[in-house]
User: What shape does this take?
Amino acid sequence: MNYPPQSTHPTSNYPLTNILNPGENDILCGRGGGTNAHSGNIKFRKLVAAHKLRYLAASKSDKPNVARDVVKEWRGMIPPGRFLAKMDVKMMISLNLITVEEIKEEAQLQQQQQQDGGGGGGNGKTKKKEKVFWYDVGDKKAREKASQCLRERNGAANEAVAALVKTVTANGEACPEDYATLMSKAAKLKEAQQGQDGGFGMQQQQQQQMNMYG
Assistant: This one.
């Protein structure tokens, strides 16, 4: 694998690798509550929500463009938004971020801690904070992450919202940017349609009466 993957950050001096302390404009890729609770992940979910309706309204061929725009907007923040993955041990060793001796020492401390029932150890040593380094996964995986987040939500709910979007945009009107506006416009269209259907039914009834007495 080429390291780090190619990315299109607007500034070249913002680090894309050997990142020890991710910031609020960084998304931590991976599963688990720890990543979901990170401030950058929370912020990114809000950005995705702002593009959700447009994504649902887009054709299959157009959906990747929505994901691309989400990534572009995230990358364009100050400081630039990054999509980070945790380095594995082999990668950190190859980059001289940690040594084999440090790994062995960490393993010994963990073993000692387990033997002592989770305490600091009878030899007075306490468990050192594990070093965790991160790297930017590049634009291709960033777009995949954005697409995944745009798709997320209950499947039935997505289908229902997509149907409303299709109804509202059928006459060429732009897709609303929020759910409240979408629901309001959909309700007005439904009322208008019911009114037209009622008027058509009344005309049919009047025509039938005219035929009976004509």
About this structure: The helical segments are 33-36, 39-57, 63-75, 89-94, 100-115, 139-151, 155-168, 179-213. The longest helix spans residues 179-213. Strands lie at 26-28, 82-86, 134-136. The chain has a mean pLDDT of 77.
